[in-house]
Specification:
- This protein is an alpha+beta fold.
- The chain has three domains: 8-35 and 100-157 and 222-233, no CATH class; 40-96 and 235-336, no CATH class; 164-214, no CATH class.
- 14% of the residues lie in helices and 33% in strands.
- The protein is built from six helices and 13 strands.
- Strands 1, 2, 3, 4, 9, 10, 11, 12 and 13 form a nine-stranded antiparallel sheet that branches.
- A hairpin with a 4-residue loop joins strand 12 and strand 13 (334-336).
């Protein structure tokens, strides 16, 4: 009988411990399986890539509207500056997700054996022979599994088969220091403690003065059932790369809406190779090839990647002897102007 669950309570039951032990999992390398990627990337070009070409009048109108939303910016520079050049181009946001599976074994114990089996008697399975599929792809999850026919009965490692362990309160003496002991009065008068009658010690309540308590690991039976516990983990590794001018903030490109010009999902991916922008092809090649060998002990279940194109216009200007540039980017035509030349030096009056 297979015992699957993503519940932490079941995990606690499978790794039952009364001594604060932390389970140590041994990860098992996945068997090597040669898989060839499909030909989608070789047959499907990226595109179309259509830049957003703006005129000087449109740029000025967008800039003035942007300045009006800024409390400390003056609109004079936006209205009077000379726009010398506009360079339309594209920003690319490449995302690669790799969904992997990894398995680990842990030698654990139970007081009683797990009833039922899914295999013939005396037949055992290896970690990667157990059939298990994720419920949702690209969603992290963990499952625990009691390996069939892995149970064997042996001596308890805590009490060595005796069923008893030293009392943790009195350490086998059966006595503890009396907390109620008091001595008061003068030389001629002494008040004795009713608990210990002046001996300063009292019977240990935890072990009833025997010095031993029942072993909690085996329940006093002296023997426990050892078994192998399997953990199957599904993990999504997410990587991204922004291909843009070095001066343009990466964080803005990640949050800016754009058009997805290419996407594909496969068991194993081939890098993008038919994008007109060669830098995109190079980035995809490096990231995809690294992902194929990044987790050697795991198995790649599925991969997906996407390429988002964001239109951008680099605008060069001149104003009162100053020269510089700013960007109009995205389908919403947002502005990134790092050093706007004219700002207020005091709070505006309302």
């Amino acid at each position: 009988m297979f015992k699957w669950s993503t519940s932490t309570q079941v995990e606690s039951n499978l790794n039952e411990s009364f001594y604060g032990e932390v389970p140590v999992w041994t990860y098992i390398p996945a068997p090597r399986i040669a898989r060839e990627p499909d030909d989608y990337e070789l047959e499907t070009p990226v595109g179309p890539l259509i830049p957003d070409i703006l005129s000087k009048e449109e740029v000025r109108r967008i800039l003035i509207a942007w300045v009006k939303r800024k409390l400390f910016y003056k609109s004079k520079a936006a209205r009077k500056m000379q726009i010398t050049e506009i360079k339309p181009s594209m920003i690319f946001y490449y995302v690669l997700d790799t969904f992997i599976e990894q398995r680990a074994l842990h030698f654990s114990y139970r007081k009683t054996p797990l009833i039922g089996t899914a295999l013939p008697a005396n037949k055992k399975m290896k970690a990667w022979e157990v059939e298990c599929l994720p419920e949702v792809f690209f969603e992290d999850a963990t499952k625990y599994f009691h390996m069939p026919n892995s149970d064997r009965k042996g001596l308890c490692i805590s009490c060595y088969g005796r069923g008893l362990v030293l009392c943790s309160k009195c350490w086998g003496s059966g006595e503890i220091s009396c907390r109620k002991f008091q001595a008061s009065g003068t030389v001629n008068k002494v008040s004795l403690c009713p608990e210990c009658t002046g001996n300063k010690t009292a019977p240990c309540e935890k072990c009833s003065a025997v010095g031993h308590t029942q072993c909690q690991r085996c329940g006093g039976k002296g023997k426990i059932w050892y078994f192998t516990n399997l953990k199957v983990e599904y993990v999504t590794h997410h990587k991204q790369k922004v291909i843009a001018n070095e001066e343009f903030p990466v964080s803005m490109a990640e949050k800016t809406p754009g058009k997805v010009v290419h996407s594909h999902t496969s068991k194993i991916l081939r890098p993008i190779s038919m994008c007109p922008v060669e830098e995109v092809n190079q980035v995809s090649q490096v990231m995809v090839e690294e992902s194929h060998f990044a987790w050697p002990d795991s198995r790649i279940i599925q991969q997906k990647h996407s390429l988002k194109a964001i239109p951008i216009n680099e605008v060069h200007f001149a104003w009162e002897g100053l020269t510089g540039h700013f960007w109009v980017y995205g389908s919403r035509r947002q502005i990134y102007f790092k050093d706007y030349p004219l700002r207020r030096t005091c709070w505006p009056l309302f």
